[in-house]
Write a structure and sequence with these properties.
By secondary structure, the protein is mainly α. Helix content is about 65%, strand content about 0%.
Length: about 550
């Protein structure tokens, strides 16, 4: 029964991803399409009010527009969080946020990470939830999609990289807003609250007073999954019955956060006029995902040896930290999807997963290319594809080519820089945290699991995921500053490098395909690509994984 549940959900994702990939390719086409008749008039109004011109940008002007808009959003978000106590839309009278926590929160939601060092129902007013959290949940995935499309255009040799503001608007009007309205209405129909009324006071059967928080939850739930944002209105996230009340909403949330990431390799194949290559990328990511999903499922189904030694029955598997209404299958699937798609929302406590079950979300974030978020994951797998082509070219003594463009020193330096940045901003802060009392004092589970807690927090920040091994006492100056910086570096350094690489590739003259050209649209290349990802990931992260979840697994058996 578990396999049928998982298989049906993944089949639905696949069936929806095919038309969605075609739709995304049409949305971001640099030519006029039928969609312009539907959305064009409304978008022209936005361009006129905003003073946007649709002229093509170089990679530098595209990057400048991105950074400028994001800086403005960061400042506005920070100020609203700091002064929410005196702003309207605050029926529960929640005070303004601490300066360092406000910095961390603004950085978190600006970078599509949505790491929360606060509890949503008690830390934010409704005004902050809507004007900071929900607003950034739209703009940040739209930014990711814009960067992704610019990279696609550079790699596939389109006439330009496009225009950042046009891409940003189209991501909203043609994808994120329509899907969010649809999913939000379904959520309301399933019992998810959508109200501006304040906290409700009630009495239990025993007569005890209870204060029930609510708010504009459905609006947040829809975009947090569609935009691969994560976070939550409530501290318990998607394990809370107001955020995820039924098995149906659980499936809907899984499909929502997996839809766009699964569609992007298909969209790339269409834009590259090489659909086979798109499916090769999809297949490579899909195989890695199934390996991780299987590991999570079988690890949780086998139970926790430590609990078995304590005499606890685990006939149905390890249910510690999981909701009974979801069970092992839907909890394992949610865990694998939320970190594969770098969403970060959780329907179970990752800190209570078995050691190998906990290794799955950690490893997916370390690789950061198993589908990934809205745009970023597909860029990363393409980066590894170019690396694989480069290595294959060196092995046969030929200048490597990808989609008719030579891969030379400049592109490889940018790709190598991107590959090195990710482990650097994970491992260095983790070492500092473990070596100092500022970081290690936050650990709630000493020993090997404590190492996992710290490494997970920085990995989640660097991958812009946002989930955590909660139990870690992370609302401190050290953690708010360090993870805030890591989130910003993880988001923008890779974006800068990839835009520069896209600009460099776009400027190259295409070379004709010959008998010696290394093909990238067959199963041989898919195997090479998978091994390139796993070998680089293993060489980089296996030592720290061995100190954390692997050592914990061996110690409790």
């Amino acid at each position: 029964m578990d396999f049928i549940q998982i298989g049906l959900v993944l089949l639905i994702v696949l069936l929806l991803a095919i038309p969605m990939g075609k739709y995304i390719a049409s949305v971001f086409s640099l030519e006029k399409t039928k969609l312009d008749r539907v959305f064009g008039g409304f978008e022209k109004g936005i361009y006129k009010i905003s003073g946007i011109t649709a002229e093509a940008m170089t990679w530098k002007t595209y990057l400048k527009a991105l950074l400028l808009s994001n800086i403005v959003m960061f400042v506005i978000a920070y100020l609203i969080l700091r002064f929410q106590g005196v702003l309207p839309g605050n029926p529960s009278g929640i005070a303004g946020m601490d300066p360092l926590l406000a910095f961390n929160t603004a950085a978190s939601f600006l970078t599509n990470t949505n790491l929360q060092h606060y509890s949503g129902e008690t830390g934010l007013s409704y005004f902050s939830q809507m004007t900071v959290i929900i607003f950034l949940m739209f703009t940040t995935p739209a930014t990711g999609l814009a960067i992704c499309m610019a990279f696609f255009r550079g790699v596939t040799g389109q006439k330009s990289l496009g225009n950042f503001y046009v891409d940003l608007v189209r991501a909203h009007t043609r994808i994120l807003i329509p899907l969010s309205i649809l999913v939000g209405l379904i959520m309301v129909g399933q019992g998810v609250p959508q109200t501006m009324s304040g906290t409700v006071s009630a009495k239990t059967i025993e007569g005890a007073a209870q204060h029930i928080a609510r708010g504009p939850v459905a609006a947040l739930e829809s975009i947090k999954h569609i935009g691969t944002n994560g976070g939550g209105h409530f501290g318990a996230n998607s394990a809370h019955p107001f955020e995820n009340p039924t098995p149906f909403t659980n499936v809907l949330e899984i499909i929502s956060m997996f839809l766009i990431p699964a569609s992007l390799p298909i969209a790339f194949g269409i834009m590259a006029r090489n659909r086979k290559l798109g499916w090769i990328l999809f297949g490579a990511m899909g195989i890695m995902f199934l390996i991780f999903l299987s590991t999570a499922y079988f690890s949780e189904s086998a139970g926790n040896p430590a609990l078995a030694k304590a005499g606890l029955s685990q006939a149905g598997g390890s249910m510690e930290g999981k909701e009974v209404r979801f069970g092992i299958a839907q909890s394992a699937l949610f865990t694998a999807v939320t970190t594969a798609a770098t969403t970060g929302t959780v329907n179970n406590m990752h800190d209570t997963l078995t050691p190998l079950g906990g290794l799955v979300p950690l490893a997916e974030m370390m690789l950061n290319c198993v589908f990934g978020g809205d745009g970023v994951g597909t860029i990363n797998i393409l980066m590894y594809a170019i690396l694989a082509v480069f290595l294959a070219g060196l092995m046969v003594g030929r200048t490597p080519e990808f989609l008719g463009r030579k891969i030379e020193g400049k592109e490889m330096k940018l790709i190598a820089l991107t590959i090195l940045i990710h482990p650097l901003i994970i491992l260095v802060p983790s070492a500092i945290a473990l070596a100092t009392n500022m970081g290690s004092s936050a650990i709630s589970n000493p020993g090997f699991h404590g190492i996992s807690q710290i490494v997970y927090e920085f990995t989640s920040s660097a991958a812009n995921n946002g989930s955590g091994f909660e139990g870690l006492g992370d609302n401190t100056p050290f953690w708010n500053i360090s993870t805030g910086i890591v989130m910003l570096l993880g988001r923008y350094l890779s974006m800068i490098a990839m835009l520069a690489a896209a600009g460099s590739l776009l400027a190259k003259k295409p070379v004709p395909e010959t008998l010696g050209t290394f093909r990238t649209d067959n199963s041989t290349f898919m195997v090479i690509l998978i091994f390139a990802v796993l070998v680089v990931g293993a060489l980089t992260f296996f030592p720290v994984a061995a100190l954390g979840p692997v050592a914990e697994y061996l110690s409790i058996r």
